């Protein structure tokens, strides 16, 4: 149980927030508000799953917002041109996969800093969209595009269920498959992982490819919620995903984190905004509260790291002796000599 204390803390915080709403703003649970919140959070969950995989390997991907926007526009333009929805979705996902592979190849192959590579991708893709679309929405989409041609209620549950299936699949893969254990090993100690037969560079390439693919899937789940496609829909998504991963208990130093924690992080942060509205708090406090939650999570993680290092030093020293006293065999032999 202690192993998942961070995840439990986030769950308790989310439960406390919902409890506060139940007492002070019970109308939050009336009608479709809760379902609408889950539908809005679903694309962020999918993108944050990809971010979790990347951060577990000590990397970061801040290009997912631009990839999200580009893949959404690609799908919209293809459907607008008369392409079948399944084919348009496939090409959109392949675009995300390709951009993820480019990021991964530069980071793993050329060993460039991930933040520099993905920042370059973010800027390049965003400016490309700005040049070709100039902020113009993709309009005149066929009726079957929104909600996959289903009713709004059915389409909403399809979006939520799709995000849940992706999250459950990723969580199962990290826990039960060799590839998942390789991700944790690469993030914990790349050199040790290499010595046991894992190829860290290949793992890094794979997680960036997965991140790009999941960003494209998230874009599709977001696009079908509306009648038009916004070319700026992904702006800020990278910060939402990173915040959710950190709040959910993943370590920025890699090797520690769970998909369940990430999902809980998304749900907690996604609830804050609507909660403030129902509690009649000015909406500008949302970012301040989210920042406080993130700062608390990072501080908690830093404190845990310091505690682990302290316990490691105590174990290495044998847990005995006074500060400055050596516990090496030579010093121990000297201390047992008769005076």
Question: How do the strands and helices of this protein lay out in sequence?
Answer:
Layout: H1 5-24, H2 33-56, H3 64-80, H4 85-109, H5 114-133, H6 152-176, H7 178-188, H8 190-195, H9 200-223, H10 237-247, H11 259-278, H12 285-316, H13 329-335
Helix pairs in contact: 1-11, 2-6, 2-9, 2-10, 2-11, 3-4, 3-5, 3-9, 4-5, 4-9, 6-7, 7-9, 10-11, 10-12, 11-12
- Strand percentage, roughly? under 5%
Q: What is the CA–CA distance across the termini? A: 51 Å
- Major beta-sheet overview: none
The tally of helices reads 13
In terms of per-residue confidence, which ranges show pLDDT below 50 for 5 or more consecutive residues? 319-339
Q: What is the count of distinct domains?
A: 1
Describe this structure in words.
With 339 residues, the protein is mainly alpha-helical. The chain is globular. It is 71% helix and 0% strand. The protein has a single domain (2-17, 27-294), classed as ABC transporter involved in vitamin B12 uptake, BtuC (Orthogonal Bundle).
């Amino acid at each position: 149980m202690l192993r998942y204390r961070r995840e439990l803390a986030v769950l308790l915080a989310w439960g406390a927030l919902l409890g506060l709403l139940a007492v002070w703003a019970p109308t939050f649970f009336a009608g479709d508000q809760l379902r609408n919140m889950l539908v809005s959070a679903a694309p962020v969950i999918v993108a944050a799953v990809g971010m979790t995989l990347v951060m577990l390997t000590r990397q970061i991907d801040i290009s997912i917002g631009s990839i999200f926007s580009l893949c959404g526009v690609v799908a919209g333009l293809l459907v607008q041109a008369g392409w079948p929805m399944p084919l348009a979705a496939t090409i959109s996902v392949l675009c995300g996969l390709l951009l993820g592979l480019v990021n991964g190849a530069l980071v793993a192959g050329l060993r460039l800093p991930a933040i520099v590579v993905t920042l370059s991708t973010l800027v390049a893709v965003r400016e490309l969209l700005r040049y070709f679309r100039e902020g113009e929405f993709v309009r005149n989409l066929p009726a079957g595009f929104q909600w996959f041609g289903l009713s709004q209620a059915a389409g909403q549950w399809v979006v939520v269920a799709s995000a849940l299936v992706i999250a459950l699949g990723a969580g199962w893969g990290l826990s039960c498959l060799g590839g998942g254990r390789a991700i944790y090993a690469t993030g914990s100690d790349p050199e040790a992982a290499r010595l046991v037969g894992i190829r860290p560079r290949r793992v890094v390439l794979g997680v960036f490819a997965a991140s790009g693919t999941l960003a494209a899937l998230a874009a599709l789940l977001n696009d079908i919620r509306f009648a038009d496609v916004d070319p700026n829909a992904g702006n800020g998504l990278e910060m939402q995903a990173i915040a959710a991963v950190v709040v959910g208990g993943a370590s920025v130093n890699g090797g520690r984190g769970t998909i369940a924690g990430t999902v809980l992080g998304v749900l907690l942060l996604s609830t804050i905004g609507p909660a403030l509205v129902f509690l009649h708090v000015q909406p500008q406090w949302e970012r301040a509260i989210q920042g406080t939650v993130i700062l608390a999570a990072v501080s908690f993680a830093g404190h845990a790291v310091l505690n682990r290092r302290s316990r490691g030093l105590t174990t290495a020293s044998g847990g005995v002796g006074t500060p400055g006293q050596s516990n090496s065999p030579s010093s121990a032999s000297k201390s047992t000599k008769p005076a």
